[in-house]
């Protein structure tokens, strides 16, 4: 199919883009990497009458560390995070473990993290990371700039708090302390399709006990969620003598946290090839395994810091 007819503008500043998005009576879409939008337009599931191409807006290109946060501008491509050096410390590791699950290299070289927040697909890896870390979405509209926490931003499949006349200028992610271990795992049907379930974890450990747990789930509800009930179960517990790849028994804390996330935090939606019960089982298993990965990562970081790798 071909896209329905549309007009096209390519502003050079955020102010011009916001003007275009606010053009009364028009159904506008932002073109960032185009890796979701162009496909949807060809299928005519999305029929904008105006496409606002932001790729010439230089001020949207930056990746910077400011006030303890990584600020990801709207034109930073997925591929920028394939190196763990893109962000300092455990955050860089978490982003690099998540990004390799997004589609394949050509899509990662064009698509953007901010575009994933704009599209708000329930299975988006970035949105799971954003939910786990309570990232912040920065938007500019006719009334100025505002920031909104990920937990309030995602409302449902492709539904967010963003108003149609607002441009997302950046997403901000908190840097993670060196005492934090990270993990990211997902389950998908074939190599390049969207995740049936994905899990992002950041586990902060002091003197062997978990002081903070952050768990984000993708495709486990109609929007990305944070598994707060499972997190509460973990805080204060000792992580014990774990190694990556070890088998978890049903009575292990992480297995218990996985089952809790599946029953209390997830609200799965039926899909072809993955019904609600299947997804709950996938959440239970993946949360447990991702916690194990994060615990092993934390141990490895500690060993390096203490000089006995
Ligand atoms: C075959 C295939 C497989 C894929 N697999 C995955 C996958 O496994 N995981 C995954 O997460 N994604 C996947 N994607 C989607 C891909 O990651 C996209 O890059 C991403 O969803 C959107 O980023 P984009 O920059 O391409 O946005 P675009 O396609 O340009 O825009 C997408 C939507 O977001 C809005 N938008 C974009 N930027 C902004 C902004 N700055 N402000 C306001 N609104 C904005 C647009 O209006 C549009 O509605 C896949 C895509 C394809 C084609």
Concise summary:
This protein has 309 residues and is an alpha+beta fold. It contains 10 helices and 14 strands.
Please tell me about this protein's structure.
The protein is an alpha+beta fold and 309 residues long. It has three domains: 7-53, Uridine Diphospho-n-acetylenolpyruvylglucosamine Reductase, domain 2, CATH 3.30.43.10; 58-173, Uridine Diphospho-n-acetylenolpyruvylglucosamine Reductase, domain 3 (2-Layer Sandwich), CATH 3.30.465.10; 180-304, CO dehydrogenase flavoprotein, C-terminal domain (Enolase-like, domain 1). Helix content is 33%, strand content 25%. The protein is built from ten helices and 14 strands. Strand 2, helix 2 and strand 3 (50-53) form a beta-alpha-beta unit. Helix 8 packs antiparallel against helix 9 and helix 9 packs across helix 10 (276-305). The longest helix is centred in the C-terminal third of the chain and has 30 residues, at 276-305. The protein is globular, with a radius of gyration of 20 Å. It starts with 6 loop residues before the first strand and ends with a helix. The relative contact order is 0.12. The mean pLDDT is 95. The structure holds flavin-adenine dinucleotide (FAD).
């Amino acid at each position: 199919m071909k896209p329905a007819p549309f007009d096209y503008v390519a502003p050079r500043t955020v102010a011009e883009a916001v003007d275009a998005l606010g053009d009364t009576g028009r159904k506008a879409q932002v073109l960032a990497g185009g890796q979701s939008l162009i496909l949807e337009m060809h299928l005519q599931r999305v029929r904008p009458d105006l496409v606002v191409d932001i790729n010439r807006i230089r001020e949207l290109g930056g990746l910077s560390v400011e006030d303890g946060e990584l600020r990801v501008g709207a034109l930073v491509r997925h591929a920028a995070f394939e190196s763990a050096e893109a962000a300092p410390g455990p955050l860089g590791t978490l982003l690099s473990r998540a990004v390799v699950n997004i589609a394949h290299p050509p899509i990662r070289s064009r698509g953007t993290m901010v575009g994933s927040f704009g599209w708000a697909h329930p299975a988006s890896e970035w949105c799971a990371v954003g939910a786990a870390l309570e990232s912040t979405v920065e938007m500019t509209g006719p009334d100025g700039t505002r920031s909104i926490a990920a937990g309030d931003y995602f409302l449902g499949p492709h539904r967010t708090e963003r108003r149609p006349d607002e441009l997302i200028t950046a997403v901000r992610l908190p840097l993670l302390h060196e005492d934090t271990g990270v993990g990211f795992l997902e389950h998908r049907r074939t190599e390049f399709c969207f995740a049936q379930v994905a899990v992002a974890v950041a586990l902060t450990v002091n003197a062997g006990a978990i002081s903070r747990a952050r768990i984000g789930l993708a495709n486990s509800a109609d929007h990305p969620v944070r598994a707060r009930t499972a997190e509460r179960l973990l805080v204060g517990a000792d992580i014990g003598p774990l190694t990556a790849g070890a088998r978890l028994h049903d009575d292990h804390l992480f297995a218990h946290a996985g089952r809790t996330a599946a029953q209390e935090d997830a609200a799965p939606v039926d899909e072809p090839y993955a019904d609600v019960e299947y997804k709950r089982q996938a959440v239970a298993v993946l949360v447990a395994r991702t916690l194990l990965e994060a615990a092993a990562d934390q141990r490895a970081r500690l060993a390096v810091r203490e000089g006995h790798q």
